[in-house]
Amino acid sequence: MSLNRSMQSSWNTQRKTRIDLNGDVPSPPTIPNAPTPTAVNTPDEPPAQKRKSRTTHGSSKRVKASHEPPTTRLSDLGGVTNAVEKLLELVALPVCHPEVYLHTGVQPPRGVLLHGPPGCGKTMLANAIAGELGVPFISVSAPSIVSGMSGESEKTLRDTFDEAKKNAPCLLFIDEIDAITPKRESAQREMERRIVAQFLTCMDDLAWEHTEHKPVIVIGATNRPDSLDPALRRAGRFDHEISMGVPDESGRQQILNTLLNKLRLAGPTEEYTAALARATPGYVGADLASLTSAAGVIAVKRIFKGLLSGAFITSDEAAEAPQGSQSAIQAAGLDNTLEQTDPPVGDIEMTPSDEQQEAAPVSDPAPSTTSTSYALTTLLSSTPLTPEQLSKLTISLPDFLAALETTQPSATREGFTTRPDVSWADIGALRGIREELEMAVVWPIRRPELFSDLGVGTGGRGVLLWGPPGCGKTLLAKAVAGESGANFISVKGPELLNKYVGESERAVRQVFTRARASAPCVVFFDELDALVPRRDDSLSESSARVVNTLLTELDGLTSRGAVYVVGATNRPDMLDPAMCRPGRLDKLLYVDLPSPSERGEIMRTLIRGVRLGSTPSVSLDSERDIIVSRIAQLAMDKCDGYSGADLAALVREAAVGALRSVILSGELTKDGPGASQGDNRISVTLHNFEQALS
């Protein structure tokens, strides 16, 4: 209590003392047992300024952008030749030779908008252009401009443009520009409208007379150009737009050539780029970079597997290993991981040199006697590899093929584009339909130059598959995409319909936008009659708009490019007649019920992976061939009117019947272990098929 009274008395005395700001500042009163202050306010700092700094702390977001040109160069890019040429024409000429524009009285472009899917190289292209020109470069992320305080976002935007004008000639790059320039009519808050208005004003202030005839060019990047305010895209602001889509095979080969030149490969770079470019449709630059990184990781795992397998373990160390080096790999959990990578270790001699054998210390076993710790200790304590040994460590093509199994393109992660693993071998019969699809879709995608030489082009065509349910229409569409190596988008007709006005049409446009970005692409519309019914007086206005949108996308002003449309329906009479005219779905293919010989061929395909036998075990291929022939003959004789789906259900029912008989015999129980992969007690016989038919 006495201490508290002493402190209160001291502070009261200090409060009554008048402080002369022009004179000496009296020392603060001494407070018993109080810590010494570490800092005292200087008289040069007014209290109001201090209060202001506290108030604005954390609210102002002045952009601290680096003005140094980036280190990226155009040689680091690939597959964007057209975009580079356009951007150099729009940016390099005004920046390097402004006197030409000043002399002719021509206003240089103020803004260039780069748009395309994520990962296509928009940001890298802007950095490469600035690096080549060597001019000041201000890079700003649009979300960093937005502030929670009223007026701070606009102030930050003005400061950014003022900074660019002070460093003119200059390039101002705004990434994700759609974050600060949405459509004002759909803006949720008044602040968003103010930011858009401020941005438009700043763009107008970049005229010649406001920048002392030194150009300031704004480069914006977005993957949502349709969400920008229309006033931003008019002449005098973002004068030009450059679309950067998903690269084609030639573009992917150029990107891979740039990426692989930095790696040590086991073979010529051209062989790798050609093979990988064909196997990666739908991949953008970022996906290809991820693929090369994954292949590098697999190669490193393969190399370290060789190290852990005893390549650098001396005979003395191997004798001290509790279970040997191979046991160490299994105990470390690396064996299963490394076995998943198909590439072989290769002919790499990992025998240590004489110097290494002499210099390699024989380390004592670690305190932990587990194989894991021993393997890791041995690996970490081994001496560095010699240049001769390092020269044999390379990344092989099987490493890239293994990486393809784990790498997915960006569009696939979004759930839109897939790569079907179905081929013609998975389809029995339907040879006539397959030949028609080969010429309509597969050959134009695989060999487009043949059609170009004839002068007919390879523009996307449309095919309508119609017939009874279960005849393989969907399977045919998947096989077409798989055989051609194209991307595949499967759309069920009703899933595009939405109760909100305009949303169904937007969903249709989005499908074709993604397909064009992932070209070559096969778009499959299942149950097409639900999406484009016949237009008449009974059709609602919303359904008619969806039909009109799809007709426009199929054959409108916008070219489909290498987008092939395959539709399927079992009610062709319900489709709008305009869908089946030439230029849209111009090839109609009837998929009928299979004939007796086709049923036998389909059955042979379906039972290809089924364990068959007339006895509990089938060990001879000749015996299996006999059983397959009998089952195929059964399908030909007693399955009249069956479709492919019916035959697949028959195979499943026969397999379930075989399993049921084994369970009823008591050989298997619910609680006991199941039949292993090599257990031949369960096999499907001809008798099971006959029972399934009865």
UniProtKB/TrEMBL annotation:
<feature type="compositionally biased region" description="Low complexity">
    <location>
        <begin position="359"/>
        <end position="372"/>
    </location>
</feature>
<keyword id="KW-0067">ATP-binding</keyword>
<dbReference type="GO" id="GO:0003723">
    <property type="term" value="F:RNA binding"/>
</dbReference>
<dbReference type="Pfam" id="PF17862">
    <property type="entry name" value="AAA_lid_3"/>
</dbReference>
<dbReference type="InterPro" id="IPR003593">
    <property type="entry name" value="AAA+_ATPase"/>
</dbReference>
<dbReference type="InterPro" id="IPR050168">
    <property type="entry name" value="AAA_ATPase_domain"/>
</dbReference>
<dbReference type="InterPro" id="IPR003960">
    <property type="entry name" value="ATPase_AAA_CS"/>
</dbReference>
<feature type="compositionally biased region" description="Pro residues">
    <location>
        <begin position="26"/>
        <end position="35"/>
    </location>
</feature>
<feature type="domain" description="AAA+ ATPase">
    <location>
        <begin position="459"/>
        <end position="595"/>
    </location>
</feature>
<dbReference type="GO" id="GO:0005634">
    <property type="term" value="C:nucleus"/>
</dbReference>
<keyword id="KW-0677">Repeat</keyword>
<dbReference type="Pfam" id="PF00004">
    <property type="entry name" value="AAA"/>
</dbReference>
<feature type="region of interest" description="Disordered">
    <location>
        <begin position="337"/>
        <end position="372"/>
    </location>
</feature>
<dbReference type="GO" id="GO:0042254">
    <property type="term" value="P:ribosome biogenesis"/>
</dbReference>
<dbReference type="GO" id="GO:0016887">
    <property type="term" value="F:ATP hydrolysis activity"/>
</dbReference>
<feature type="region of interest" description="Disordered">
    <location>
        <begin position="1"/>
        <end position="77"/>
    </location>
</feature>
<dbReference type="InterPro" id="IPR003959">
    <property type="entry name" value="ATPase_AAA_core"/>
</dbReference>
<dbReference type="GO" id="GO:0005524">
    <property type="term" value="F:ATP binding"/>
</dbReference>
<feature type="compositionally biased region" description="Basic residues">
    <location>
        <begin position="49"/>
        <end position="64"/>
    </location>
</feature>
<keyword id="KW-0547">Nucleotide-binding</keyword>
<feature type="domain" description="AAA+ ATPase">
    <location>
        <begin position="108"/>
        <end position="248"/>
    </location>
</feature>
<dbReference type="InterPro" id="IPR041569">
    <property type="entry name" value="AAA_lid_3"/>
</dbReference>
<comment type="similarity">
    <text>Belongs to the AAA ATPase family.</text>
</comment>
<dbReference type="InterPro" id="IPR027417">
    <property type="entry name" value="P-loop_NTPase"/>
</dbReference>
<feature type="compositionally biased region" description="Polar residues">
    <location>
        <begin position="1"/>
        <end position="14"/>
    </location>
</feature>
<protein>
    <submittedName>
        <fullName>Ribosome biogenesis ATPase RIX7</fullName>
    </submittedName>
</protein>
<dbReference type="GO" id="GO:1990275">
    <property type="term" value="F:preribosome binding"/>
</dbReference>
